Amino acid sequence: MEILRVENITKRFGRFVAVDNVSFTISKGETVAIIGPNGAGKTTLVNVITKKLEPDGGRVFFDGIDITRLPPQKISRLGLIRTFQVVNLFPVLKVRENLALAGLRAGTTGEVESVAEILGIKRYLDKRLVEVPLGVQKLVELGISLLLKPKMLILDEPVAGLGAEDRFNMVKVLLELKKSLNLIVIEHDMDVVFTLVDRIIVMDKGRIIADGKPENIRENKLVKEIYLGGE
Amino acid sequence: MYMLRRLRALIDGNIIALLLLIGLLGLISFTGHRFYMYIATLIMIFGIFAMGYNILFGYAGLLSFGHGLFFGVGAYSVALFTLNVYRDPLVGVLFSIPIALLTSIIVGILTLKHGRVYFAILTLALSMIFWSALIKLRWLTGGSDGLVGIPKRGVLVDLSAPTVFYYFTLVFFAAIMLGLYMLNKSRYGLLLRALGTNEDRLPFLGYSTFTLRMIALTISGVVSALAGALYAVFYSVVTPDVAYWTFGAEPLVMSLIGGSSYFLGPLVGAIIFVSLTTTVARFAEYWMLLLGAALIAMILFFRGGLLGFLESLAGRFKLGVYLRWRF
Questions:
Q1: Considering the entire predicted model, what is its pTM?
Q2: Looking at the domain assignment, is residue A105 inside a domain?
Q3: For a Cys-Cys bond, which of A67, B65, B238, B296 suits B75, CB 3.0-4.6 Å?
Q4: Nearest CB to A76 within list B190, B197, B204
Q5: Cα–Cα distance between B324 and B239 in angstroms, integer?
Q6: What's residue B326's pLDDT?
Q7: How far is B319 from chain A (nearest CA, A)?
Q8: Which residues in B lie closer than 8 A to residue A105 (C-beta atoms)?
Q9: Exposed, middle or buried by CB within 10 Å (0-12, 13-18, 19+), for B97?
Q10: Is residue A156 part of a domain?
Q11: Can you give the residue range of the structural domain that contains A229?
Q12: How many domains is chain A built from?
């Protein structure tokens, strides 16, 4: 049973076509990675799906509802939640307050402490976000997403910029999450991708050039050529 | 135990300072000194105005050049109501609340869908339209002469004795300040601070920035109008000057002087501003020049205002913990 259907999505910036007639479907329970070289259109595609950007063409359905014309807050309320490539939160607020913002919206304020405990960031709760390390900030962003009770979570480069230990912690958390959540991960780190996902969509120059199981993508000649450097 | 924890979460340096100030203002009436009471009344009225303004500026991050509109709506509501409908200052002041609420919603619908720069310009334009209307609609507003004879003695209350009016203002001041403090501690306080910090992120958490901005504007508009209503009763006269954009920019100056990212910053700014304009202005011919120079120095060197400066000073002497009064 499908949870997300993307139909012929196109996004242009002037004459540059960032996303070119992209279509795919994701089933409930699937964990999917979208990979591709820089400028392939991955983040733009996610921005269009979550309505950070307006599409120039195509439609998006989430959990059976056409969300193409909905504003981002309505999409979020339907349970399609995203994180951002660069941590995009509320720097002068405390970690607890950042999490509470999600809790207040979804009626999960009582779960702030337990989510912080699960993510291993409880000792940072009373610090301002700007005072905590990047790894913790990324986990706060994930915590916010979880407190919003998502049906599907789109993570834009969740381990980018993290040290080895934070990266390990993040992957551990994500492996746990994939058991109960639909995940889409945009990621450059192939170890993380191959550890985490059931399916990989490969993009290049705004188009999907491959879509399949990780073992098939690893052997795909075109993917090797343009993305994995022909190894 | 739960109540005790809730109570502890509510108490911080801000509420202690606020209660001390309210107590001090209460004591001033016992001096019987007319000039002190005059300055204290102005401090309370402009303190309310500046604190109301800062809900929009300091919390929601929206710069308004049109708050003279709300102040003017409050002042003219009480004037028109008490002179034409029901001769009572208390009912008049209360009457200004629904009028200000309605005005805020209309202003919000016209301005809040646009970016921050457009919001600043649109609020300026709306306040100037209102100011022009006050001048032109002479049959209703008295034109540039304004409305005179706003009664202090009414059917329900008699505020003609200076001490009685002083306490009347103090009750409104205390109620509004405590209300704003509770707002600061509430979920809406947190949401408004988040709005000022990173409004682009909030829709992805499921919040409508338009709705949050509207909440900020209506609270700010109603509080500013209440300041205007008290001002009109205080002077028993109201002229279109209160709706002029330079008057509407005064709470911005007060917020910057005190520190717009501190809960009490605008109130501290109002104390300094009113004290200077009512004392220095009597002696120094060029006080506006002095004020301008002080403001430039403040913005260039003490961007956090006086409270920001004190916090950094306290931090240097490792006393920072006693001055964490940001909202």
A1: 0.90
A2: no
A3: B238
A4: B204
A5: 40
A6: 62
A7: 18
A8: 205-207
A9: middle
A10: no
A11: 1-79+183-231
A12: 1
